[in-house]
Amino acid sequence: MFSPEGPSLRELAVQALSSVERGYDLLAPKFDHTPFRTPDAVLDAVESALRRTGPFDAGLDLCCGTGAGAGVLAGVCRERVVGVDFSAGMLAVARERVRPAGPPVSFVRADARALPFGPAFDLVVSFGAFGHFLPRELPGLFAQVRSVLRPGGCFAFPLVAPPRPGSLGYWMLLGFDAVMRVRNALWRPPFVMYYRAFRFGDVRHELARAAFRVELHALPEFGRRRDGSPRVRLVVARTPD
């Protein structure tokens, strides 16, 4: 799962026993060599889908980490791109490594639950960050996203179809979440990373409560499951014009 340039088991253990912020500060120099980074295939597919939806003027990468999503936004936005994350370590790596062609890119340290922007963006994207938010935090998170979007703006993120009950992937996710819950019951500060907590039915309901109109776009690059449903969808939540 990890390349030779990735973190050691000891480094991962230290990260897992830290807070989320401190853990990502520690992991940042090697983060791009872990499976936690969004694969380029997903980034490319999302950019292709957004090209069919855009173009956009200003874009925000929510929980940007080391800046992988900034390249997506730079490909579909004309004026500027901003990445926001609460890990100073991850942002330091992003500022050093991200040099996409296109509009200017900047990075801001802030909590996604208290964004320091007005309605200045036409597009907000996020990649792989929602497992770090508890279900009760979603209404506030989506309200924050709504507050930084201009009229007619959209909030887009890829969503992988959940593994089928009983499959290897299902038991792996179940086991990971169980380990995290035991860890958080026994150790402080908590490290919130629950991949099974982000259920689309709940997410769609909370997006609607935040006055978004939700669309689903299949990403054909990843094919379909046996029942014909897409393996990966792009969720596009739009604000009223």
UniProtKB/TrEMBL annotation:
One of its GO terms (molecular function) is methyltransferase activity. Gene3D superfamilies: Vaccinia Virus protein VP39 (3.40.50.150). CDD domains: AdoMet_MTases. Keywords: Methyltransferase, Transferase. The keyword NAD does not apply. Pfam families: Methyltransf_25. InterPro entries: Methyltransf_25, SAM-dependent_MTases_sf. GO terms for biological process: methylation. The keyword Lipid metabolism does not apply. It comes from the Bacteria. Residues 60-153 form the Methyltransferase domain. This is Methyltransferase. It comes from Streptomyces azureus.
